[in-house]
Every structure is written in C-alpha cells, then in structure tokens.
Amino acid sequence: MRIEIKGLDDERFHRPLQNIANLFFEESEVLLAADDSAELQVTFNWQASDTVLAKAELFEKETDKRYQASHEIEIVPESTDKEVFKEVKRAVSYVFVNVLQDMTGIKQKWGILTGIRPTKLLHRKIKQGISPKIAHEQLQEDYMISEEKVALMEKIVERQMDVVPDLYSLKNEVSIYIGIPFCPTKCAYCTFPAYAINGRQGSVQSFLGGLHFEIREIGKWLKENNIKITTIYYGGGTPTSITAEEMDMLYEEMYASFPDVDKVREITVEAGRPDTITPEKLEVLKKWNIDRISVNPQSYIQETLKAIGRHHTVEETIEKFHLSRSMGMNNINMDLIIGLPGEELPEFKTTLDETKKLMPESLTVHTLSFKRASEMTRNKQKYKVASREEAEKMMNAAENWTAEHGYTPYYLYRQKNILGNLENVGYSIPGQESIYNIMIMEEQQTIIGLGCGAASKFIDPVTEKITQFANPKDPKSYNDHFEHYTHKKIEILEELFKKENFHA
Q1: What pLDDT shows up at residue 451?
Q2: Mean pLDDT of 462-479
Q3: Which residues contact 447 (CB under 8 A, 6 or more apart)?
Q4: Which of 23, 35, 225, 311 is the one with CA 20 to 30 A from 299?
Q5: pLDDT band at 202, cuts 50/70/90?
Q6: What is the mean pLDDT of the chain?
Q7: Distances (CA, A) of 161 to 119, 169, 283, 442
Q8: Of 439, 474, 425, whose CA–CA distance to 454 is shortest?
Q9: 89 with 16: CB under 8 angstroms?
C-alpha cells in the first residue's frame, strides 16, 4: 500500500507515520512527496500555540471515499521547541491512526504506540506521583490505548513492584548480560547473533578467550568502584551450546571476577535448545548454584519445528525438561511462539495442553515477528503464517490458559512487524519471576553486555539518559577487537558512575 502524505514535508514525520502504516498493511510505503501511483492520499494540517491542533483527511482513490479526524493537545507552559514538536508528532499520529482505523475497520488496541516498552509509560506516571485512576485515564486519552491493554499494563506493573519493590532505587547497581553467539542450527525467525557451532571450535575457543578477558576487566572495575550486580543473564545464541568444561571455566571466571556473586539476586542461563542439554552440563550449573534456566519448545508440533529449523524433537523437549527438573533446576522457563508457519488456534491449543503436563515456573508467550534479517522474512512466500484475527485468538487462548493455571503476567514488550500488532508477555507462578527480564524491559538501571553481539545499555543514575553500545556481532570481529570494546565500556562506566553521580 503506497500512501502519499500532503502537508507534512518535515522528514521527522516519516518514521512515526511509516511505523503506524505498518500496523495496518503488510506491505506499505509512506511518501512525503507527491505520487500519482499512491492508493491513499492523506492530507494533514496542524497548528501550535497554547494547544496543538492536528487534522487529517484520508482519500481512498479506489472507492472515492474520504475519512476525517482531528485531535487537540494542550501544551505545557514554557515548553521547549523540542517538547512542542513531540506533542505535534503525537497529535499527527493520533489522527493518522483514526483515519486508518475508519478506513480499514482494524482497531489498534495499542493505539498510537509503536514502541517496544509500553509499561515504561505507566512507571513514569507512578514515579511522578500520579494516581492509578488518573494514570489509567491519561494512557487511554493520550495514546488511544484500549481498556484491555491498559488493564494488562497495570497488572504487570503491580506485579513488578511486588517482585522488585526497590525497582526505582537500583540505578546505582548494574545487571550483566553475557552473550554466547552459537547454536546447533539457526532458526528461521532468528536475527540474534547465532552461528551454527559445528566446525567452529577454533572460533569458539577464541571467542571464549575474549569473553573471559571482558569478565575479568569489567569485574575488576565493578569491585574497585563498589558497584553491586543485581542480576546476571547468559543469553545468545544458546549458552549451553559450548561444552560442559567450557561452561565450568566460564562460571568459575564469573565467581572469581565479579563482586559478591553469592549476593546476586538471580543468575539465569538460557538452555533454550533442548538438543544442547546434557547431564554433564546440568551438573556444572548445579555446581555453581545456577538453577534458573530456559528450556524452549517454541511449539509442540513436530512439523513446525522442522519448518523453522529446530533440529530437536517434541519428545526431546519433554525429556530434557524432566532431566533438568530431576537434576535440581528449580526455576524453569519455557518460551512459546504464536503464529509460527502452518499453525493456527488448534495447533497452539495442543502446545498449551503439552505445557500443562510440565507446568514450568514461568512461560513467555512470544508473537511471531518478521524481523528484517531473518530467513523467514526473506522468504515470506515459503512460510505461511496465521491471519491477524487468528493470532489474536491464539493470544487470548494464552491469556485464559495462564490465568486458569495460576500464572500472572509480569513483563511485556513489543516488536516491529509483530503479527497482528500484538505483544510478547512473560507469565510466572508468583515468586518465580525473572528479575532480569523486568530490569531489561523497564530500563531502571545500566545493563552491561559482554560477549559477541552483546548490547550494553548505560542509564545515567541522575538524568536517566540512555546510551547504547554494542559489541561486534560476528565472532571474528569480536575476537579481533574485544580489548577495545572492553576499555570503551569502562570509559563510559567511569563517566556514568563518577563520584558526584553515584551518591546523587
């Protein structure tokens, strides 16, 4: 769908309008210039004084129909030009969503939001001392969020504050993410740094040498500056792709280098691929007091696993879950994905029925996202996925199933190009939530990324300004430059946690 935009020639409007168009059309192109071939023409006008008033008229050429909307927002006195323009963008987004909803009949339950972390909006209002009732009304009014989604946000934020009551005061601590960029095979939907491990043992060993260096140097800096670690999370890739001996040496390094590991609130290791789990590796986890892992089925339909490139069987998932449980893994997470190729509501119900037999402590329900660099996105014609309506039925089934079986939602995030404009929700038996998942989603503290492809997110303890910094994604580049990236991270930490900030 080609959409010609009139009345907005400022490039700063292009991205928000394109993101909104993507919510309604599988293939869309927003053009801030005249284009006779465009199927839709949307004319905007806006003005700003004490208020911002935005109007839009959509003309659908094929039907000769027109749709109109207007929206007004009060401007806070003494707002800067940047703050005023932010409100202009919000008003423009508001009327754009309205006319597209009228034309397509598609109701956007997340309103004008296209960002990843909607619950941050509610946290911000709580920190400002706004009452829950007023916050609820403001979210609906300001962003067009539906009653259903606001209620979900409220339930999640309430649970997060129960799990981490000091969430807003953890800015002087950090969490650590450690990325292991290897997997048995690469899944069709994946864009994470993940390289098939077979035949790459030399690359693995070089990578681990760099990772040990990062852990030592960052650990040394944290000790010298008296900075505590809240959580540690091993992701990837699949962290259990490496050998039991390599895992053992890595965790030994962690305990030797990081400050007070025995006081860290939570250590998680993603053992996401069942075909990487062995008794020897579970013994290593047990040795180092790590009992929170992920064993991710994604689906319990064998044809689906084959289609997406996961070379384990449904039976192996179940077998490795029971093995993990029998060897002392007391907090097991499982990931499920809504909308995988060839699956609709009946197949997803089968997956939920199988999950009931295992009852993991936590369950993350992802909605399939067409990530730009994935095999699935490059070959969309090969992978038939569920419709928007079917995806929503599957999400509703997950919500009902988790509620019936004692799980509570505790974190949420969204992605670009997510099927049905839905969301990813983490559910947990109360008391078994992943603290790391809350920290990464709500951005209340710095998270230091170590390893290939690991991204660091530095959050200023005073201003809360976010600075992102990523290690190289491929093992060779990482191996060549890990010292540089380590020292660069320490420079940022030095600036972030300088004495006057640290005690603010």
Answers
A1: 94
A2: 91
A3: 174, 175, 176, 177, 439, 440, 456, 457
A4: 23
A5: low
A6: 90
A7: 12, 12, 34, 11
A8: 474
A9: yes
Question: Do residues 103 and 60 make contact, with C-beta atoms less than 8 angstroms apart?
Answer: yes
Asked if the model's pLDDT at residue 279 lies above 70, the reply is yes
CA distance 167 to 438: 9
Cα atoms found within 13 Å of the Cα of residue 309, Cβ hemisphere only: 14
d(CA 222, CA 257): 9
In the three-class reduction of DSSP (H, G, I as helix; E, B as strand; rest coil), residue 131 is classed as: coil
Instruction: Read off the pLDDT of residues 331-346 as tens digits, 9 standing for 90 and up.
Output: 999 999 998 888 899 9
Total residues belonging to the chain:
504
**Kind plus residue range of the DSSP H or E element containing 339:** none
- Identify the sign of the CA torsion 476, 481, 486, 488: negative
From the list 5, 99, 89, the residue with the least C-alpha distance to 48 is 89
| E strand or H helix at 5 | strand 2-6
According to the model, what pLDDT value does residue 310 have?
Answer: 72
The predicted model scores a pTM of 0.90
Nearest-angstrom CA–CA distance, 404 and 223 = 45
Tell me how far apart the alpha carbons of residues 33 and 196 are, in angstroms, rounded to a whole number: 45
Q: What's the maximum distance between 2 C-alpha atoms anywhere in the chain?
A: 71
| Local confidence band at 188 (pLDDT 50, 70, 90 cut-offs) | low
- Is the pLDDT confidence value at 91 over 70? yes
What is the DSSP annotation of 432-458? ---HHHHHHHHT-SEEEEEETTPEEEE
In this structure, the number of other CB atoms found within 10 A of the CB of residue 199 comes to 7
Q: For residue 235, what are the β-bridge partners?
A: 179
Q: Which residues of 369-379 are buried (b: 16+ CB within 10 A; e: fewer)?
A: bbbeebbbbee
SS (H, E, C) 358-396: HCCCEEEEEECECCCCCHHHHCHHHCCCCCHHHHHHHHH
342-363 mean pLDDT: 94
**What pLDDT, on a 0 to 100 scale, did the predictor assign at position 373?**
45
Three-state secondary structure call for residue 274: helix
Report the Cα 452 to chain-centroid distance in Å: 19
Tens digit of pLDDT for each residue in 219-253?
Answer: 999 999 999 999 999 998 889 999 999 999 999 99
Distances, alpha carbon 175 to alpha carbons 120, 260, 446, 469, in Å: 18, 13, 7, 15
